[in-house]
């Protein structure tokens, strides 16, 4: 069974592919990813160009939608069938899941040559190193505490950009009073989860967030702040 590499993403975005031992025999890289919008495609072209300079052809395997959910469903099916892509975009914890399953290649030789131990932050190495071996490399890192605001609506209701959760609620109430749907979600669990993350961080602060979500502190989880 072929193993696949991972080149990587809080989300750490990762890329995954054929084992290092077989890399010299690979002339075409089959790349599974969900970067299908115009801006994302432009970013992906940078990777394509770098790969071309190394003498490899790039074969796109795009799977749009779901913030990567659809792509990961496709990857799961491919791995189950033994038809691995050469490389795949992944999110951080997904890399660890596949590493535990024993299907990731070993990037340690490349990592040592390029000094990843020093150049990749320790927080990202948690998603890139498994059982002492590099199985992933970051290509994109972003946080989840962001919000898209409709400027036309803001201008219409005379709103200002909120800096706290309370200010956000006040803005949403103002939009609702003006006959505007105040908040729109895509109907997917991860969107609600990331919004809840931001609410807890804004309401309780960094230390409370760490105790509740990192340490799973029972007192914090049952506190009035969490309620």
Report what the structure shows.
This protein is α/β, with parallel strands linked by helices and 227 residues long. The chain folds into two domains: 138 residues, 3-Layer(aba) Sandwich (D-Maltodextrin-Binding Protein, domain 2); 71 residues, no CATH class. It contains eleven helices and eight strands. The strands form two sheets. Strands 1, 2, 3, 4, 5 and 8 form a six-stranded mixed sheet that branches. The relative contact order is 0.15. Keywords: Periplasm, Signal, Sugar transport, Transport. Its main location: periplasm. Pfam families: SBP_bac_1.
List the SSEs and their pairings:
Layout: E1 4-6, E2 12-18, H1 20-23, E3 28-33, H2 38-53, E4 57-62, H3 69-81, E5 87-91, H4 92-100, H5 108-114, H6 116-119, H7 122-125, E6 129-130, E7 133-134, E8 140-141, H8 151-157, H9 165-177, H10 189-214, H11 218-221
Parallel strand pairs: 3-4, 3-5
Antiparallel strand pairs: 1-2, 2-5, 2-8, 6-7
């Amino acid at each position: 069974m072929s193993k696949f590499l991972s080149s990587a993403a809080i989300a750490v975005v990762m890329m995954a592919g054929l084992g290092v031992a077989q890399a010299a025999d690979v002339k075409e890289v089959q790349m599974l990813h969900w970067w299908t919008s115009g801006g994302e495609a432009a970013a992906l072209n940078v990777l394509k160009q770098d790969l071309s300079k190394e003498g490899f052809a790039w074969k796109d395997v795009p799977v749009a939608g779901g913030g990567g959910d659809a792509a990961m469903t496709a990857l799961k099916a491919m791995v189950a069938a033994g038809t691995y892509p050469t490389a795949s975009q992944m999110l951080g914890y997904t890399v660890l899941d596949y590493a535990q399953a024993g299907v990731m290649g070993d990037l340690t030789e490349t990592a040592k040559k390029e000094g990843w131990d020093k150049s990749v932050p320790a927080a990202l190495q948690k998603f890139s190193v498994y059982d002492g071996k590099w199985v992933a490399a970051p290509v994109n890192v972003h946080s989840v505490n962001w919000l898209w605001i409709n400027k036309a609506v803001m201008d219409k209701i005379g709103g200002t950009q909120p800096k706290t959760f309370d200010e956000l609620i006040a803005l949403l109430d103002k939009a609702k009073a003006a006959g505007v749907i105040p908040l729109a979600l895509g109907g997917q669990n991860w969107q609600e989860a990331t919004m809840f993350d931001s609410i807890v961080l804004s309401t309780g602060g960094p230390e409370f967030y760490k105790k509740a979500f990192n340490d799973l502190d029972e007192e914090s989880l049952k506190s009035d702040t969490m309620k």
